[in-house]
Amino acid sequence: MHMGQRQSPAGDGSGIANDDLTIDEAVRRLEVDAVADVARAAFDHAGERAAIQHGHTAAVLGAVRLATRRSRRPTVDREELAAAFDVDPDDVVAAESELSRHLGSPAPESETASVRRRLIVARELLAAAERGTVAGPDLPGSYLAAAAPFLLARAVDGPVCLDDREGDGDTAGGLDEASLRAHVERLEADLECARLGTKLAALVADE
Question: What is the reported pLDDT for 175?
Answer without folding.
Answer: 62
